[in-house]
Design goal:
The complex is a heterodimer of chains A (about 110) and B (about 120).
Chain A (H helix, E strand, L loop, with lengths): L2 E5 L2 E5 L4 E8 L4 E8 L5 E7 L5 E3 L5 E5 L4 E6 L8 E9 L7 E2 L3 E6 L1
Chain B lengths: L3 E4 L2 E4 L5 E7 L5 E8 L3 E10 L2 E4 L6 E7 L2 E6 L8 E8 L10 E2 L3 E5 L1
Parallel strand pairs in B: 2-11
Antiparallel strand pairs in B: 1-3, 3-8, 4-5, 4-9, 5-6, 7-8, 9-10, 9-11
The chains are: A mainly beta (about 110), B mainly beta (about 120).
């Protein structure tokens, strides 16, 4: 069975500071990994994904994540936070060939302060 | 944006009543999903469909049933609503030729309150 653990249900950063949201996964087969973002009263939007190939993946709005198999991690980073980044972020895993079923983490609420 | 709509967007009902939520897509995608979102739990898969009349259970399927008689529609039914089913329900779709493996597109959610 696959699972995802997101460390820190709430993260607060200053505008312009580094954003680091942590995600660790468990999967019995090579995983596909995703980060989604949810703005208030909206559905989830895909930020970025890792399937195969390059382990550093770049997404929208300046976010990127690195797949580290040895650490079973897929942490999300952004060099400089912007007020518009305030949202809830979800890490998700699916098993390759698993029919596109995603298992989500519990989410991390990002607050950006002036 | 992919065409996916959920109805109703908001519903208040009483314990014991049946409730049906509808998800409609205009993308002709194969896979459709129902998730529920609750604080502290993230999103949890209720049921999913991999084609017309082909459905399967997710991790929190008890108390829910689904039907998919057409590619574009995926219905979620609560036969007898309970307060523990108060939640925000999201429909998602995937499987289009322009999308990668596992990538989901979500509807805007249906907020259900069971009194």
């Amino acid at each position: 069975a696959q699972s995802v653990t997101q460390l820190g249900s709430h993260v607060s950063v200053s505008e312009g500071a580094l954003v680091l949201l942590r995600c660790n996964y468990s999967s019995s087969v090579p995983p596909y990994l995703f980060w989604y973002v949810q703005y208030p009263n909206q559905g989830l939007q895909l930020l970025l994904k890792y399937t195969t190939g390059a382990t550093l993946v770049k997404g929208i709005n300046g976010f990127e994540a690195e797949f580290k198999k040895s650490e079973t991690s897929f942490h999300l980073t952004k060099p400089s936070a912007h007020m518009s980044d305030a949202a809830e972020y979800f890490c998700a895993v699916s098993e390759s060939g698993g029919g596109n079923k995603l298992t989500f983490g519990t989410g991390t609420q990002l607050k950006v302060e002036l | 944006d992919a065409g996916i709509t959920q109805s109703p967007r908001h519903k208040v009902t009483e314990t014991g009543t049946p409730v049906t939520l509808r998800c409609h897509q205009t993308e002709n995608h194969r896979y459709m999903y129902w998730y529920r979102q609750d604080p502290g739990h993230g999103l949890r898969l209720i049921h999913y469909s991999y084609g017309v009349k082909d459905t399967d259970k997710g991790e929190v399927s008890d108390g829910y049933s689904v039907s998919r008689s057409k590619t574009e529609d995926f219905l979620l039914t609560l036969e007898s609503a309970t307060s523990s089913q108060t939640s925000v329900y999201f429909c998602a779709i995937s499987g289009g030729s322009t999308w990668g493996a596992g990538e989901l597109f979500f509807g805007e959610g249906s907020r259900l309150t069971v009194l």
